[in-house]
Model the fold of this input.
Amino acid sequence: MTDRDSAAWWERVAEGRLEVQECSRCGTLRFPARAFCPRCRAEDWRWRAVEPVAEVDSWIVERRTTPPTTIVRVRLARAPHVVMYGNWRAEREPSPGERVGAVFEDGPKVNWVPRP
Amino acid sequence: MAKRLLAFSDRTALAGIGYTDFSKNSGVSTLTLACRAILAALDDAGLGVDDVDGIATHRVGDSVPPSTVGPALGMGAPTWYLDQFGGGSVSHSVVGQAALAVAAGLAETVVCYRAINARSEFRMGTAASPGMEAQYQVPYGLAQPLQHFAMAARMHMIRYGTTAEHLGRIAVRQRAHAVKNPRALMRVPITLDDYLASRWIAEPFRLLDCCLETDGACAVVVTSAERARSLRRTPVLISAAAWGGGDSFLSGASPADPTVTAAAELAPRLYGQAGLGPSDISVAMLYDCFTYSVLVQLEDYGFCAKGEGGDYLEESLPFNTHGGFLSEGYVHGLNHVAEAVSQLRWEAGDRQVPGASAALSTSQPGYVLPATSALILRRDS
Ligand SMILES: [Zn+2]
Done:
């Protein structure tokens, strides 16, 4: 499922690290992983660790699986333009705008839990 | 709205429409479906295969290309053809590009078709999603267009107070239309309670939020307005044809704000081409893969303000008079165009909107492939 731009990102997730690309020229953070900065078109970049905290944008409860699967759409707290999807790991439903934290699971996957 | 007519506005027309039966299992190949729909559309126009010099379709690995369909019908070599990659979001651009080809003189008469065994052979959402974004979604069980629309619908509910009852009203109204449509697959009336009692698929969507998976084909004939006037049907002019995307196009499958679709960016261009505005539209065929896509397009095509789609339903213009994909059948877009043509010819029977003079017909508004396409059609006066 990975591609040549994204393989290194998934390797970091497998090690329990949430990082996104940071443009070496203008500092823009970007995700998903890709070669060029969409803002200044520079090709130089570095990995930047980001706080694994996000806000809930929306979610669905997929009812065709047993048990049902809750999938959340979140935005990173430190980079609100970065959208990620993951599974919700709590007994209750998320609420809009709720602050959540990343948990790393086998797959590898980045999933989300209520922030303590 | 300022007049800014393009060179091709009203220069081309839809001169014929054709359908196969809609079913859950056609028992025949997609090639057979395509040929049947094309021959029906040509017959409707009073034309033959030898009159066709252009052929166009769109597909996502689920249908037959023009290079198979043309020879199967013994067509001569086309002077123009189009085999567009894409699903619902490009359905109307196929017709728009055919209109451009005719207006530019590349072809005289183009047949556009869409043929799918979408229930018995190629079920939507069972193949891996196209595009690089899928790798960030599929591991979590996010793999179907339905789920992306449900995610967007939830955001609309959170931000604007849109309710299940609003979505249900769309399903109920379209079913009432389908009851009057002999071609429709679902002709038993439903109530809001039936909607609310239908089983969950992916919350906030219930079964009755979702379109039908359908085997079937539809075709339309595009020719010059001048030629259409010499044929046997009332010409339906192509006043505007636009395709493309807005913010969503730049952000792939995760648009920054899923409560605003590519249609919002496209609408001013579309209306500008036709020299018309939302209040000039008599009837709208709004891409209804799910109830929510109707609601968001009522907003994004300017029939009401952003966030007011739910309340606007009380007073809305007529939409999806054939029952739409929710109740007539899902042929991925062209059956919307064909219904618009029937309405503008005043041949829609019990479901006719009296005096219909202009119609909007739209494609998937941009949640899967991040672009959309749409037409404004006008009865020739
Ligand atoms: Zn940059």
